[in-house]
Amino acid sequence: VLVLTTFDTDEYIFHALEAGAKGFLLKDASRDELFKAVRAVSKGESGPITYDVADRIGALHVCDVCARPIVEIDVLVTRVVAHYARGNGLARRLREALFRSPDALGSIGSPRPHLGFSVNTGGDTDQFYAGLTWEWDFWRRLFAGFGLGGAIHDGETETSRTDRKELGCRVLFRGSLELGYRLTRRHGISLFYDQISNLAICDKNEGLETAGVRYGYRF
Predict the structure, then answer these.
(1) How far apart are CA 16 and CA 21, in angstroms?
(2) Distance between CA atoms of residues 80 and 36, nearest Å
(3) For residue 193, with 0-12 CB atoms within 10 Å meaning exposed, 13-18 middle and 19 or more buried, which class applies?
(4) What is the pLDDT of residue 71?
(5) Residue 134's pLDDT is what?
(6) How far apart are CA 178 and CA 113, in angstroms?
(7) Cβ–Cβ < 8 Å for 155, 171
(8) Using one digit for the tens of pLDDT, what is the confidence trace for 133-163?
């Protein structure tokens, strides 16, 4: 089997090789690369893997003994992001780590676990959050995603101050949306929006929103 595709995400690569593909090429591969791959696979040999894909997975062939890709040992952290946003009228700095989806989450769409924290540079509400992110690639370089999880913050649960929000509970639900573009296989940029709220479980529930531009780097 020779895979020819426009998608070069980790999931496509790993699953294709694990299923027994002898080669993996992107649709921008040259004619010579394609001919060479077809000849190799037709002879039962391992075909070439596009170089940028090979660099990511760290191997140019499939394990002949175990019939599973050499890349079965995964690097867990796949993306670390840093972004600046506006939330509650003050600038925020955020860091987030997005991990590879474990096999156990395959039945719910293979979401990726994430961890992150948000620091308000004006001394307002900071938060630490965690949850799951579902992500889809389309049109080769565009991607979209949404996340669900929870957050714990150091802001006000109740206050009479007009410049602070009453968040009601210390632990809140968190949801996020993202639309982005992959500049290269390692670098990406996106627009994002997230909100923390107690969903009216507590007496006060003003919620806290953040929106901005995010840069991402994939390991």
Answers:
(1) 6
(2) 37
(3) middle
(4) 30
(5) 95
(6) 15
(7) no
(8) 999 988 878 999 999 999 999 999 998 888 7
φ, ψ dihedrals at 79, nearest 5°? -155, 135
Q: Which residues pair with 194 in a beta bridge?
A: 176, 210
d(CA 142, CA 89): 30
Closest CA to 88 of 161, 164, 154: 164
How many residues appear in the chain? 219
- Of 6-15, 122-131, 186-195, the poorest mean pLDDT is in 6-15
How far, in Å, are 155, 156, 195 from residue 88 at the CA level?
11, 12, 11
Tokens for 173, please give them.
């639900």
pTM: 0.65
- Which residues, 6 or more positions from 67, have their beta carbon under 8 angstroms from its beta carbon? 20
User: For residue 16, what is the DSSP state?
Assistant: H
